[in-house]
Amino acid sequence: MRPEKQGELIVAIAALGGDLRTPVSKDVLAAHTGLSPHTLAGTRGFFEQAGLIEAGRGVWAVTEVGLRFARLRATDSARSRLLLREHWQEMWFHKAALRLLQEGPLEEWDFANRLGEGLSSGRERRLYLVEWLVHALLVHREDGMIVAPSSSADSARPQTSAPFIFDPLMTMTDEEITALPTDRFVALMDTYRTLFTDLTSPSARSAAV
What is d(CA 117, CA 161) in angstroms, rounded to the nearest whole number? Predict the structure, then answer.
């Protein structure tokens, strides 16, 4: 199951479990999504390792991060990607990816194969893991190659004023923002988040009174 569908599965678990993150039986989830129990079982391991679900005997529930991801995915796909980027910084698959890319870019299948060494997953699931890493902005895809995020990305981010930041956010569509080059996308989202945090800080609110 491709990452896009896997993301929809997290949204479904969150919707069925509600704000209390009530565990959902695998049978109910299968009926709700139209997916077979076998297909659902194939996603469980990654979702648990990624910290998005907690699974018991025959039941699944989203974690707090999983619930936040599901809500953001429905309303703000850009922020949902940034959430994964932050949450997965210390995950084994992110650390392994950075180690593999220390010497430079790798062809996508070679990268996927090396990343999955020692795992029982087949070719398809290894490629899906790469898709998730790209989606979460932890690695970049360029001309069929997988590259590590630029070490100079932070220094390359423009120190911009509020009008510059709000202009693209107010005039570009969601598709146009998502289609930006990865470094530009991350820079825009990070700067927007910093600006929003500054504007909503207690000191900022006090100054406005």
Answer: 46
